[in-house]
UniProtKB/TrEMBL annotation:
This is AIG1-type G domain-containing protein. It comes from Culter alburnus. Residues 3-109 form the AIG1-type G domain. Keywords: GTP-binding, Nucleotide-binding. Belongs to the TRAFAC class TrmE-Era-EngA-EngB-Septin-like GTPase superfamily. AIG1/Toc34/Toc159-like paraseptin GTPase family. IAN subfamily. It comes from the Eukaryota. The keyword Metal-binding does not apply. Signal peptide: none annotated.
Length: 190
């Protein structure tokens, strides 16, 4: 007996639609039991881990119909007996509209929480991008200000040297005379 991926996902899909409680009120119904050729379904369930997991998710309750023996009312009576047993195990109740409404409300709340968290994550990402941009702009302005100050200091130093040379005529003739290299060396230190 093969259990495909789609069949394995059915309990999760049912739970998602109707809530976690629904599987307590579910029975796995196998049809075409006649194709088992006398092999007990219990053995097949034990041998197949995927099938066993599927049955376990529904509380271990299952039933087999033999499609070739459609006049056999006993298989229908056995199914009804299993349904009665399941109802007793669940405190005499069945899956109700209130349970469905609770499941739907829970699903809405989960979805709303997911949407809120997604929106918060997007906002945090946007804030992060803005902070990064602001930081980059601040760093660029800081570099410009440092360059401006360096240029001002250099300009002030050049102006001070020119004033110094202008007010000291003896040095000016020395610097501009044959000793021009001293000016270059002196200039490079300041």
């Amino acid at each position: 007996m093969k259990i495909n991926k789609q069949n394995q996902q059915i309990p999760q899909m049912i739970e998602m639609m109707f809530g976690e409680e629904v599987l307590r009120y579910s029975i796995i119904l196998f049809t075409h039991g006649d194709l088992l050729y006398g092999k007990p379904i219990v053995e097949l369930i034990k041998e197949n881990s995927k099938l066993r997991r599927l049955v376990d998710q529904c509380g271990g309750i299952f039933h087999v119909f033999n499609n070739k023996d459609q006049n056999n009312r006993e298989q229908v009576n056995d199914l009804l007996q299993k349904i009665d047993t399941m109802i007793e195990q669940n405190g005499g109740g069945h899956y109700s509209n209130q349970m469905l409404e609770d499941a739907l409300r829970f699903r809405r709340e989960v979805e709303e929480r997911r949407l809120r968290e997604e929106e918060e994550r997007k906002q945090q990402e946007e804030i992060g991008r803005m902070m990064k941009k602001i930081g980059a702009e601040f760093e660029a302005q800081k570099r410009l200000e440092i360059e401006r100050r360096k240029a001002k200091i250099q300009s002030d130093e050049e102006g001070a040297i020119v004033k110094f040379i202008h007010f000291c005529p003896g040095i000016r003739s020395t610097l501009y005379g044959s000793h021009c290299s001293r000016f270059s060396v002196w200039w490079s230190y300041n």
